[in-house]
Design a protein that fits this description.
- The protein is an alpha/beta fold.
- It has 3 domains: about 100 residues, Rossmann fold (3-Layer(aba) Sandwich); about 60 residues, Orthogonal Bundle (Helix Hairpins), CATH 1.10.287; about 160 residues, Histidine kinase-like ATPase, C-terminal domain (Heat Shock Protein 90, 2-Layer Sandwich).
- It contains 9 helices and 13 strands.
- Strands 2-1-3-4-5 form a 5-stranded parallel β-sheet, sandwiched between helices. A 5-stranded mixed β-sheet has the order 7-9-10-12-11. Strands 6-8-13 form a 3-stranded antiparallel β-sheet.
- The protein is elongated, with a radius of gyration of 30 Å.
């Protein structure tokens, strides 16, 4: 449901509020009213508007005094204030701006000017809100990325420390070496994903398209991830056509897509289950790749948003979820001119499907 901007009108004359209400009719703004500065400050403890229209000449607390208090509060100072004043002296107007007002409009108020100044200030407020959302998002992302980087690093450090213990058997040594290798792969995968996403998003990444055997690439990816799958008691299964095809893709980027989809499936698949990677060619110059699991699946209302950055589907205890893997897959698949979507795997699980239209040559 769309939320309309809220405006707080502070004026000791109720008739002036009625004028403002009339001049802003049919704009969709939510207008609120306070008859003096003291009541406005009380209201602001529980309600923050997107904009304040403030009368200058008010008894007890003038608009300038209110503005000084209002702009002196760090929680409120980002909210724009338009002074509504009958003053025309430049010194008086300068005093309004010095008090912290962002703009002013002279009485009698003109509808066209009022609407233009309100739109301008609300646009600035929306830009500020968007910037704050981005900063919060980056802060959250930084915390999640640090957490995800720390996990494999901790595994590497712990395994390395245990190797140094006396009387460490060759069997246990090999086991710990394998743990270090797996943790290193996880660390490398996360770093590569972050770097590739930054390049794609900035438009600085040019695809290095080469002709490859798609089935061969899928086979190599599954082989490389089999150790991690085995550690989680999962089985990666390939379902490939008898005759393969060569397609033009950026090998490094496309390999990362497959790795991310399989890694995502491994995160959510129950122990002892199978994860299926299939390739087929449903039509000329068209290839379909699917990763099929039997995990919790993706709710119908999340099947679009789950491909957005930092969005996650089902929260899983003790499972790393920073919402980057699927966002990267979408960006990389679309960079190849393809599409990716997710659907239900009846009776349980998810099917992630990549559809590509490409020049194919039979191998």
């Amino acid at each position: 449901m769309e939320e309309y901007p809220s405006i707080l009108v502070i004026d000791d004359e109720p008739d002036n509020f009625d004028v403002i209400d009339t001049l802003l009719d049919n704009t969709g703004y939510q207008l609120n009213y306070a008859s003096n500065g003291e009541k406005a400050l009380e209201l602001l403890e529980s309600f923050l508007p997107d904009l304040i229209l403030l009368d200058v000449m008010m008894p007890n607390m003038s608009g300038i005094e209110f503005c000084q208090i209002f702009k002196g509060n760090p929680l409120w100072q980002h909210i724009p204030v338009i002074m509504v004043t009958a003053l025309t002296n430049k010194e008086d107007l300068s005093q309004c701006l010095t008090a912290g007002a962002d703009d002013f409009i002279s009485k009698p108020v003109n509808s066209l000017e009022l609407r233009a100044r309100v739109r301008s200030m609300l646009r600035i407020k929306q830009q500020y809100d968007a910037l704050q959302d981005t900063l919060r998002l980056r802060e959250d992302l930084s915390r999640m990325v640090v957490h995800d980087l720390r996990n494999p690093l901790s595994s590497i450090v712990l395994a390395a420390e245990m190797i140094q213990l006396p009387n460490f058997s060759p069997e246990r040594l090999q086991h710990k070496v394998n743990q270090i290798l797996i943790a290193t792969q996880q660390l490398e995968s996360l770093i590569d994903t972050l770097l590739l996403m930054a390049k794609i998003e900035s438009g600085k990444m040019l695809l290095n398209l080469v002709e490859i055997d798609l089935c061969g690439l899928c086979t190599r990816v599954v082989k490389d991830l089999s150790a991690i799958a085995g550690q989680k008691k999962l089985e990666l299964v390939l379902n490939l056509p008898e005759s393969g095809h060569y397609i033009n893709v950026d090998v490094a980027l496309f390999r990362r897509i497959l790795e991310n989809l399989l890694s995502n499936a491994m995160k959510f698949s129950p122990s002892g289950s199978k994860i299926l990677l299939t390739v087929n060619y449903p039509a000329p110059k068209r290839v379909k790749i699917q990763v099929i699991d039997s995990g919790p699946g993706v709710d119908a209302n999340l099947r679009q948003s789950i491909f957005q950055r930092y969005e996650i589907g089902t929260l899983m205890k003790d499972t790393s979820q920073i919402g980057l893997g699927l966002a990267f897959c979408k960006m990389a698949v679309e960079a190849h001119g393809g599409q990716i979507h997710v659907e239900e795997n009846y009776p349980q699980g998810a099917i992630f499907t990549i559809d590509l239209i490409t020049d194919l040559s039979e191998s």
